[in-house]
Task: structure prediction
Amino acid sequence: MLLCKKYGVAVLGLFMIGMPGETEKSARETFRFAKELDPDFAKFNIAVPYPGSEFFETWRAGHEGPMDWEKFSSWLDLASAGELLFTPEGMSSAQLVSLRDEGMRQFYLRPRFIARHLYQGTLGLTGVSRGMKVFVGGRLKSSVQRRLSPMKQALGIGREPWGDPFDWQAPRLGSNQDKDLPPTS
Result:
């Protein structure tokens, strides 16, 4: 890691949570370890019993019924797909997804991380604000709206002329909606 930093090689740390025996405490220890290593970027995946692995063989022995191949993803959308293929004993799918999201927030929302990437130019202010929306947006938006709504009503204030600061969607691949992104071909 130190040599990579010395020579300017970006490091992506890939971390896995949700293996058999995982607990909330051990997942949080993984997040702490990731921050201690301090790679340039990190991704926290939920363990998936992929075919060909020992994990799959163990999982398959206790699994009855047809294979639901759409669920073989570490970034499964619970809203549309239901439950994860595997969750450690004592954890639900929702808990595991929430833990993964917590790890991402803990890693990326560190002031030192943000400052370093702003200084290096690997992250612009647009990226910071959009990242904040992604990681904090849902909670922040509802909290801010809940607090502002009574004040707005009392003062007779409508929608801001510049629009809703939380009304943002990621640009589609192949579009050039963001000035910070290079044009696509």
Notes: The longest strand covers residues 12-17. Helices lie at 2-6, 24-37, 54-61, 78-81, 93-108, 111-120, 125-155. Residues 36 and 172 are 34 Å apart (CA to CA).
